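In keeping with the milestone schedule agreed at the kick-off meeting, the structural modelling team has produced records for the first pair of proteins. Each record is given below as a sequence line and a structure-token line. The laboratory manager (R.T.) confirmed that both were archived under the project's standard naming scheme.
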Amino acid sequence: MSPSNIPSPIQRPPDLLGQTVVVLGGSAGIGLETARRARAEGAKVVLTSRDPERLRRAGLEVDAASTVAFDATDPAALERFFRELPGTIDHVMVTAGRPPYGRAVEMDVTQVRRGLDDHLVMAVQIARHAASKVRPGGAVLFMSGTGARRPGIGLTLTATLTAALPALVANLALEIAPVRVNVIAAGFVDTPLSAELLGDQLETRRTQLRETLPIRRVVGPGDVAALAIHLMVNGALTGATYDVDGGQQLVPA
């Protein structure tokens, strides 16, 4: 084929042009990478985080429309955040919080309740606020995991939340329709949080995954963010859980 006959690359308008994407927990890791990709697709982004300084840096990096520092597990602060958003938004991505690890028999009732509140109760609250703020056909996306689907010591509460969230989201998708609600379930993702949790065992874990995962590499924030953007764009997807773990569930633990 002569150079003059080579097809030109397909040009398309950005998928999120003119839309507003809110990322709760958007100052690092998966949340920040989702914000980067949303901006690249033409969206305005609103970032939130508990850490004001890290949030400030993230907001500058992605040229955020606004940033708001608050704890998303605080019901009053969460209500105030959604109430003060100007106008309608298009999508909400929730990456705030971290999995609760520890032996259930060693947790007191307060710790167990806090784990449930910080995940399931927060999800209900976000859906309730989003019902009146997100446009019809817009998306609310929650994060979960695939690793805790296997029983293990220290995973009791995390595994319970992992099992409960898809059922919750399937029902929320009916209750707040036509706003769409989905879950992204990730395995190990190479993020600052993973580094914090694993410490000096991080590189060992990376090597293990490169050798055992079917994809022969470690899943990164960009892999999860790419799925998040697709779930925002594809208006036919709601009430479901989408795994992105590189096949981690398919190999021995």
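The second protein of the pair:
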Amino acid sequence: MGSDVKPQPFIQKRIASIDALRGFDMFWIAGGEGIIHALYKVWPGATTRMLHVQFDHVPWAGFHFYDLIFPLFVFVVGAVLPLSLTRRLEEGANRRELFRHIVQRFLVLFFFGLCYGGLLDLDIHRLRIPGVLQRIALAYFFAALVVMITNVRGQAAVAFGILVVYWLIMWLVPVPGVDHTLWATPQGNLAGFLDRHLIPNPQRFCCYPFGDNEGLLSTLPAISTCLLGVLAGHWLRSTKFSPLRKALGLAAAGAVSLLVGWVWSLHFPIIKNVWSSSYVLWAGGWSMLLLALFYWIIDVKGFVRWSFFFKVIGMNAITIYLVDRFFQFHLISDVFLHGLYPLAGAYQPLLKSAGVIAMFWLFLYFLYRQKIFLRV
């Protein structure tokens, strides 16, 4: 995908599909999955049960739609880098200033992640150092450095090289006291072993006692996820092909990524909790297909209006993630809708979930109208 890329330095406008895809992703994080679970409660059946299952994480090996949400966001973070960092490099921006900006953004994101993990509770013993924003910050930081010092081919080589190195480390480095044949199990994987021994407060792990869901070693392949987004961003910036060809090329790359990820999973299973190499390619393949679909509908065919709902969310994605941690939108929704709950009867779970979504979207819409965006 990278060999045919011809940079287009004068592109400065945002690609609408990227904002919409980011918003689509954050919609499920901020409460959209509650609609799916509510549908299953209201209309239990084979179809709603299938959706209900897909919106829960797989306990260990395997893949559900909800296991795509986090890597999709990291992928989109990478997709923006060629549209911002690469463009500024091509325009002759001062590299020292760019590096300072990268470090500043990394520190701010990491700090926000610590706040989300309990820093503001002023209880250091319960502070969770790893986290979603921390992983995004680290993946962004190292991916941005790779973009700063390498070309497209180099970025692709680094992305794939990280996955190979991570696979070999997980496979070949033994865990003390564990049969080496169990290297890809919850009890025997190296990433979990390191997390349990090096990260404070193991009782706060997302998947304790098997390791941290956003742990130390498993952050390494997340850089590759971000770099896959970088490669997709370069492709969308290219001028050699038409927008339709770019959409088709991105879809083809997604299909190849899925195929390679599936083949790799025969030895290194698709495991979100350790961000396995096969998981990176599997989630990356679906991320490319989704970006290709959004790009084709919005930027190629010009069907934009439907995406406004997601655009409002995508323009303030970090804001809603942080606000959702400290403000209970379901309580605000209850204040406005409590009088309707008795009338809803069996549909009350659906009304409650819809109310939460309405509250957080109206909050973001207010910020959007006021042109208030959290820029990190």
